[in-house]
Amino acid sequence: xxxxxxxxxxxxxxxxxxxxxxxxxxxxxxxxxxxxxxxxxxxxxxxxxxxxxxxxxxxxxxxxxxxxxxxxxxxxxxxxxxxxxxxxxxxxxxxxxxxxxxxxxxxxxxxxxxxxxxxxxxxxxxxxxxxxxxxxxxxxxxxxxxxxxxxxxxxxxxxxxxxxxxxxxxxxxxxxxxxxxxxxxxxxxxxxxxxxxxxxxxxxxxxxxxxxxxxxxxxxxxxxxxxxxxxxxxxxxxxxxxxxxxxxxxxxxxxxxxxxxxxxx
Length: 265
Ligand SMILES: [Zn+2]
Prior knowledge:
Elements: H1 2-14, H2 17-33, E1 36-40, E2 45-52, E3 60-64, E4 69-74, H3 80-89, H4 91-101, E5 112-115, E6 118-125, E7 132-135, E8 138-142, H5 148-174, E9 181-185, E10 192-194, E11 199-203, H6 211-223, H7 232-240, H8 245-255
Parallel strand pairs: 2-4, 6-8, 9-11
Antiparallel strand pairs: 1-2, 3-4, 5-6, 7-8, 10-11
The structure holds zinc ion (ZN).
């Protein structure tokens, strides 16, 4: 959890003041437009989303894993204020659940990790032949138990490289540019980068992101091969080689730090 918080802080200090302001305005607008209230904790703010439900017998709190928000189910004749008061009186429970949400997921037997957004279970098969192989949403790992974590990580890095290279070259071709080199790294502060020499680098952790998110990060860096800036021409080009740019950017903003959960102890 601490590490995730640090990463979050890092990405925020990296953003310009204007971008932070813009995000604040956007959040405020969102809060006004839909029924979102924020619940403040010492280190974070959590959105409360009110859902009236006639059949509910009492107020129910539920964690929305996808958005890290708290859903407050309101029975008949229950006001949002009552719902908020109920959430406030259960802050400890909410905090506990949120901590669980960001808990590290080590690469061990039975752990479930998302690969391009699809959950896969790690299966240690000590007596099997081979090293690591994937079969119907299971990652099988042979050999001694103490090697499972390292083997899974090595395999994921190779998978990440394969998936990223395939898409990057296709996109570069689409805009008439050539990639000089693609490196897969364990970067902490950015998902990808592009040099003026045409060398691209990506975080191997993108393998845990949904497909459209990986696709966007690749499109972003490939677009820099032609536009070395973040001007309107850049975003237009990026949109041309990535169909889900907006939703992917939103996903990264909300869940990017989640990608750091995997493989940690
Ligand atoms: Zn960029």
